[in-house]
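During the no-cost extension, the postdoctoral fellow (Dr. R.K.) reprocessed legacy sequence entries with the updated structure-token encoder. One reprocessed record is reproduced below for audit purposes.
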Amino acid sequence: MLGLAPAANGGNRTGRIFTGDSSGDFLWAALHRAGLASQPTSTHRADGLRAIGCWVTAAVKCAPPGNKPLPSERGNCAPYLVGELAALDTVRVVLALGAFAWDAALSTLAALGEDLPRPKPRFGHGAEARVGLWTLLGSYHPSQQNTFTGRLTPAMLDVVLRRAGQLAAVEAGLPDRG
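Re-encoded structure tokens follow.
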């Protein structure tokens, strides 16, 4: 799972991405419902939360001013994201939380030697694109701007997480738990 960057008052403060803020509360509750987290909430890095069968990271590794990373910040952090995905050799599904993460995922897959589909796959909630060995899924970011307005609801995120689980099961040769 790929987000934008650690939030200044969330992951940057707590030391673990998507913890200590409302975005994290929304995301970890959904991951818990999907069986991908040991508990539905997280407030700090030593609270017992464990991700189960998934990796949660960010395209930019520091909290950018105004939550708007500069192109140079994304470029400086890109090699770290490439290294993370390369090291996770069983990962075949990448869930991008927002358009920024979607574009970062496409750039990362290209850096790993994959040919990107033409035309470039467009981001949208529920968007799906096959890129070489990987399937890229899109979801609106669980920011307050999206969750408070209803642009992203718990049910909408649950559907995308269910699809990610289906794809991961197929890639691993496991039966669909659907």
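The chain has one domain: 2-172. The chain has a mean pLDDT of 88. The remaining legacy entries will be reprocessed before the final report is submitted.
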